[in-house]
Amino acid sequence: MSEEASNAVRRRTFLGAAAGALSVAAAGCVGRGSEDASRSATERRTVHSNCWICRAGCGQAVVLEDGEAVDLTGVDGHPKASAGPGTEGTLCSKGLAQLEKTYNPNRITRPYVREDGDLRAADWDEAIAYAAERLEAFREEHGPEKLLRYQGYPIGGEFHDLLFRELYGAPIQVGRKTTCHGPFSDSWEWMAGYGREYPDWRNSEFMIAWGRNPMESFRGQWEPKGILEAIEENDATLVCIDPRYTKTAEIADLWIPIEPRTDGALALAMGHVIVAEELYDEEFLEEWTYGFDAYREAVAEATPEWAAEITDVDAEVIRELAVGFAEAAPRAVAFPWTGLAFQGNGFKNCQNVHALNGLVGSIDRKGGTRHWQSGFSLADPFEKRGIDVPANHEDRPTPDYDDYPYQRHVRDLSHNAVPAAVERGDIRGFVNNWSAPLKSGNSDAWADALEAMELVITVDAFWSGVSRRADVVFPGASALEQPFLATGGDGAYSESGWVSASKAVIEPIGDCRTDYEIYKDLAEAMGWGEYFPWEDAAEFYDEQLSGIGLSFDEVAERSYEIVSDVEYERWREDGFDTETGKFQFDLDVVEEYAALAEETGASTAPEWHPPDDELYGETTDEEYPLLLTDGFVQQLSRGHCQALTEPVAEYHDRYGFGYDDYDGNLLHINPRDAEPRGIETGDRVRITAPDGELELVAHVYEGVRPGWLFTVSGFGEYSIAPDQAGGNVMTINAERHVEPVSGQVDRNHPVDVTPVGGDGR
After folding, report:
1. Which helix (H) or strand (E) holds 695?
2. What is the DSSP secondary-structure string of 277-311?
3. Cβ–Cβ under 8 Å, residues 721 and 160
């Protein structure tokens, strides 16, 4: 591919590439793998598994030959892997990477323990006994409250919690809200009173993907397929608001490359138009909302012309966007995600966007937001067996951080506060389950904290910044090697709850074990075997499913079951689970937020909060004139695909980038920023920031707006990438890079970029 072709920004004519979109490999939906016609059918069989890379649980059809997985694809009709009944199941490239991940030669396949300062291989009996002895000694010396829990997206998270929280008594964990989606989730929960919303894409007529890139297959294939179905079947409009030209932008009717971190101003201006032209849902506002007067006041002066100066979005575009959104309501949805959550002023920006959905009454309505619930309850296996599980974590002393405002309501510890907690002696040990905290914020401080801790235990598949520093490394089984059960919720069946299950489809590689086996063995060594009486996780899941009259075997055989009906507009019967029982524009009734707002100088109602170098994100200046953000793309996960050859090659191929000596992430930079600095595609460049520097290889590209730089997370120092290739943006992240309300890590950094020298080839 020529450089000119690779750098071109493609725009589609409406529906141009979407014909037959539910059955073709398009925009992040990867189709079926082809079978080798030379093999006879009797040599092959197909079984079911599930992908858990992004916690979606897309059903997989796995082709086995002589006990080895050789091919996989999605399960037809699956709530996560398809567009619903009668549609083909597919997987994204991350899901397809399960084969390379499982059979990767760099994978950890036996336990390790630290002896005389160095890690050495051990057998399971020794590793379990060593870990149990160290944990018991730690509890005696420091108390369980000094042990920090951390989870990524584990299959066996419930067993991790059972052992370390309920039995061992460790009360503190780092929640996902402070590494991924805090501003989005906290603002929504306080406004609507229930957990995270997801859009009812497939039934919508006007979709705003706001700092979210659903066409790159996050939370399952149902999202991109639902969008394509809405475009094809509903003649729906798709708007992408993002400074990066993503795969969502490629198929959008309108791509708005907004000035980064100004999303809240755009949302207020849209609200101004909707209120001024009386396009809001009057019945919903009068009967089901609280604080509309405060909202009306907040948007009174927020004209499109005002916002245009801030956002670099034309005032007429803002006006047309607001009118189109309101006129399509309630089958309209504005949905923010990590693009806003990763901002220092993210809480207010998310609150302003959420308010638009309330303004037009699209809450839990067909084609709007959806209050996803399963609509059923599984049985409690402990209750069925008469096991009374203790809650030894309750009433344990936990640290009080008056100088961290968000810690007064954030569950447990914010990610970036952990190194300080270690330095203060409040945390002295760490148990980690399938996560990469050194990729999530202030990496260098975290590395020092891990070195200072007296005990680090991790379950993982590759050598990472954590496993290299651990005292015990347990090699965990992949999704193909252990049983699985998930319930939903969000998916292709807008009005249904479902279950998805699968058995282990191959034997664990080497000496790896399932999560349940690891925690059961450790519990038995510590005298808690009575709380793990099930032979394996499949038996545990079978007892859970008995509560809805199903067995694990029958669900795993089919892959999924649709088991309940979940109606829209449940607030009409139950109200909202908020302080007022209504959707809350103004959060003055939320005691914890009202106190935070007063301390941080914020309003409890929606408002525009620009970055200000104090609490709400650092600003660029003459020394650091560019803004750098890291994030995700279709080909790579948060940190567990960077060690795989094929996903990295696919990522480079996506941008027409061929560079045999480099298998790291690229720095995507606009020509207007590259040319004055003498930077060309393929050059090695140095990124300098107030808290450090790193090197990357440049990709000069019109698909990022001028003044803003983007790279993919999960590479560089502390990563699992071979030779730690590429650069880790979190090495220039510091403790202060935190959104002040939610404790979410702020991933926006003022920087400058210069060539390292020569062309880097």
Report:
1. strand 692-700
2. TT-S-HHHHHHHEE-HHHHHHHHTT--HHHHHHHH
3. no
Candidates 408, 460, 616; CA nearest to 112 is 460
pLDDT tier, 15 (very low <50, low <70, confident <90, very high otherwise): very low
Confidence of residue 38 (pLDDT cuts 50, 70, 90): very low
Q: End-to-end CA distance of the chain, in Å?
A: 18
188: exposed, middle or buried (Cβ count in 10 Å: 0-12, 13-18, 19+): buried
One fold for both 112-174+378-488+496-564 and 626-755?
no
**Residue 58: how many CB atoms within 10 A of its CB?**
31
pLDDT of residue 14: 22
Rg (CA), the chain: 25
Enter the pTM of the model: 0.93
For residue 580, which of 288, 358, 354 has the smallest C-alpha distance? 288
52-91 pLDDT, tens digit per residue, is 877 778 999 999 999 999 999 999 999 999 999 999 999 9
Out of 9-23, 374-388, 518-532, which region has the weakest mean confidence (pLDDT)? Answer: 9-23
Domain ranges, ordered by start, for the chain: 112-174+378-488+496-564, 182-372+575-600, 626-755
Residue 9 burial (CB count, 10 A) = 12
What pairing do the DSSP bridges indicate for beta strands 206-210 and 237-241?
A: parallel
Per CATH, domain 626-755 is 2.40.40.20: yes
Identity (one letter) of the amino acid at 384? K
Contacts 24+ apart (CB under 8 A), 254-257: 254/317, 254/321, 255/11, 256/313, 256/317, 256/321, 257/312, 257/705
The token pair at 471 is 């005292």
Q: How confident is the model at residue 30 (pLDDT cuts 50, 70, 90)?
A: very low
> pLDDT band for position 93 (50/70/90)?
confident
- Residue 45: the pLDDT is 94
Residues, the chain, total?
A: 761
| CATH number, domain 112-174+378-488+496-564 | 3.40.50.740
Residue with tokens 């138009």: 273
Q: What is the CATH number of domain 182-372+575-600?
A: 3.40.228.10
Cα distances from 495 to residues 228, 406, 488, 565, 710, in angstroms, run 19, 36, 11, 6, 38
Strand, helix or coil for residue 586 = coil
Residue 372, helix vs strand vs coil:
coil
Centroid of chain to Cα 587? 26
Pairing of strands 332-336, 112-115: unpaired
Spatial neighbors of 595 by CB under 8 A, at least 6 apart, are 408
Which residue type, as a one-letter code, is found at position 169? G
